[in-house]
Design goal:
about 200 residues, alpha/beta, Rossmann fold, 9-stranded mixed beta sheet, 4-stranded mixed beta sheet, 13 strands, globular
Length: about 200
């Protein structure tokens, strides 16, 4: 049985992710906020709804940032969701300039078109750029549920598994070695989202 830790860093949306994973079965899933416990698990999920700066402050104050980096160095898989994906990158320009975990190269910037409805909220399609175990059985132009005002601008195309278009193309699914990130919410994205979570649990 795969053991999965969902990291609680004082943000919402934890129980919905846990419930989605539990419904898939054959997993032991815990919500944890203890940095020392992270290494005990097979895989970790970094979910997220909220502000980049507050999230990083909490991770640092509780030594979770270094524990996450050590977990990644061990070769075990990590999945960042929404804000959790954005935290994986070098920095964000959300309400200032703030350093992220820096485990994938790139930055987080705001949608600039004043005619756009912000946040980008609702169903939108993804354009698959590369094959990955995370995207197994996911069709090109599959719909996922998004809620975000800032988006990831990945530095290297090799890290971009799929993009989404909202006035411009942006990174929707990313990977670097054992590090994965998805901007939309898989736990809110019906069967396609559950397939992503199932792939992370069983295929990676």
């Amino acid at each position: 049985m795969v053991s999965i830790a969902i990291l609680n860093y004082n943000i919402g949306n934890l129980s919905s992710v846990r419930n989605a994973i539990q419904n898939l079965g054959n997993t032991k899933v815990d919500i944890i906020n203890n940095a020392d416990s992270i290494a005990k698990y097979d895989k970790i999920i970094l979910p997220g709804v909220g502000a980049f700066e507050n999230a990083m402050q909490y991770l640092k104050l509780n030594n979770m940032d270094e524990a996450i980096k050590l977990f990644i160095k061990s070769g075990k898989p990590l999945l960042g969701i929404c804000l959790g994906m954005q935290l994986l990158f070098d920095k964000s320009y959300e309400f200032g300039e703030h350093l992220g975990l820096g485990v994938i190269s790139g930055e987080v910037v705001k949608f600039q078109d004043k005619n756009l409805k912000i946040p980008h909220m609702g169903w939108n399609t993804i354009n698959i750029k590369q094959n990955s175990k995370l995207l197994k059985n996911i069709k090109n132009n599959e719909y996922f549920y998004f809620v975000h005002s800032y988006y990831v601008r990945a530095k290297y195309e090799d890290n971009i598994l799929a993009t989404c278009y909202y006035d411009q193309e942006f990174s929707a699914v990313v990977q670097k070695d054992n590090i994965f990130g998805i901007q939309p919410h898989p736990e809110k994205s019906s069967s396609a989202g559950l397939e992503i979570l199932n792939n992370f649990i069983l295929e990676i």
